[in-house]
Amino acid sequence: MRRILNHSFVFACFYAAAFSCLTTPGTIAAENVPTITISKGDQINLAIIPLGGGEGAAATKVVQNDLALSGYFKLGGAESSYTVRGTASGGSLQGQVVDHSGGTVLSKSYSGSARPSAHQFANDIVETLTGQKGIAGTRITFIATRSGKKEVYVADCDGSTVRQLTHDNTISVHPSLSPNGERIAYTGYQSGYADVYLIDLGSGARNRIVNFPGTNSGASFSPNGERLALTISKDGNPELYTVGANGGGAHRLTDTRGVESGPTWSPDGSEIIYSFDGAGGPQLYRISAGGGEGQRLSTGFGYCTEPNWSPDGKKVAFNVRSGGEFQIAVLDLAGGGAHILCNGEDPAWGADSRHLIFTEGGGLYMLDTVNSRKNKVLDGLGKITEPSWSR
Of 102, 150, 215, 249, which one is least surrounded by beta carbons within 10 A? Predict the structure, then answer.
């Protein structure tokens, strides 16, 4: 007989109305990704000439949306420092960026359909002109209740190409995208118990990879995609473990009387930050990926859960509960302290360490943490929770 332990691993928290943010209602359709106007921060003046060719109009719209979402550019205007131009047709996109004197700073060809090629072009523009990694075309996964049950979905980070991946008619929670966006690990109750499943997005194959007695929950991919950190209660108490991406090689990291949950990896894979409730309210702790004794992080908040380590390694976003509300906070790991951003739950960093996705009121949002721009990415799918973002 398999033993079930009734521990709660899902803690809520999120995003406060600390900023005056303009919100544009989102939909499921790719064509309805909202246009964003940004007026704060140092931005590069950029003009976009509509791309020529049979697929030029569609590609132009994708590039415009991607560059606007990035937050690095002021689009249009007579004093543009750079101009984007090119053509898209017949499964090929040729893109160029020239400076104000006509000098070419980027010239590249892309093969494939217009949308992914336009995403690649936009990311190359961001990296060429800013030195930062772009988020265009990255994937998100999340839980939504449109069917009446919690099921796993996947979409592009701008809210387009939404797909429901599971149709289990039971509970699915804690989805985690691999860094390359090709696999999703999640906790499912198909067997009646909390087990971890792995979905290959390319083939559609799904396998149960962790099914120890008790609870197996909250798997999170390592930066190289080769291991998962998660909570396992097979030894009686919920503890932090790592396993291989196929579920083998289980290694116990903690040995406590409390509950560890919400693990997130450092960018180099050497450490893990997690939430631990062993001293009153849950707090954030940091531990070697090889195990040892966790060290508490000083956040200044009494209830901290669902940490997410930024790809640049400099900060961690997490949930706090204050005054009966769930909010999103960010901790500067170099010692700069923590501060609340806004109301919401389940923050996840994008590849640029600038944008966060999160949920609020059943919808999915994106926040630019530099200019405080909040944008609705998705709604109309029931209640959306627990987003994860590829890198």
Answer: 102
Query: Whole-angstrom Cα distance, residue 355 to residue 156?
Result: 14
Which tens digit of pLDDT belongs to each residue from 344-370? 999 999 999 999 999 999 999 999 999
Global pTM reads 0.87
Residues 6+ apart with CB under 8 A from 236: 5, 214
Count how many residues are written for the chain.
Answer: 391
**Phi and psi at residue 42, to the nearest 5°:** -80, 120
The pairing of beta strand 151-156 with beta strand 139-144:
antiparallel
Range from 5-14, 230-239, 247-256, 315-324 carrying the lowest mean pLDDT: 5-14
Q: In this structure, is the dihedral angle defined by the CA atoms of residues 101, 103, 104 and 105, taken in order, positive or negative? A: negative
Give 315's contacts (C-beta < 8 A, 6+ positions apart): 309, 330, 331, 332, 333, 353
pLDDT band for position 211 (cuts 50, 70, 90): very high
Joined together, the tokens standing for residue 17 give 């109305």
Between β-strands 44-48 and 73-75, what pairing exists: parallel, antiparallel or unpaired? Answer: parallel
Q: How many CB atoms lie within 10 A of CB 384?
A: 26
121-140 b/e (C-beta count within 10 Å ≥ 16 → b): bbbbbbeebeebbbbbbbbb
**Helix (H) / strand (E) containing 19:** none
How many angstroms separate the Cα of 349 from the Cα of each of 11, 195, 315, 390?
18, 26, 10, 9
Per-residue pLDDT at 77 exceeds 70: no
**How far is residue 281's CA from residue 257's CA, in Å, rounded to a whole number?**
14
Contacts of 218 (CB under 8 A, 6+ apart): 9, 174, 187, 230, 231, 261, 262, 263
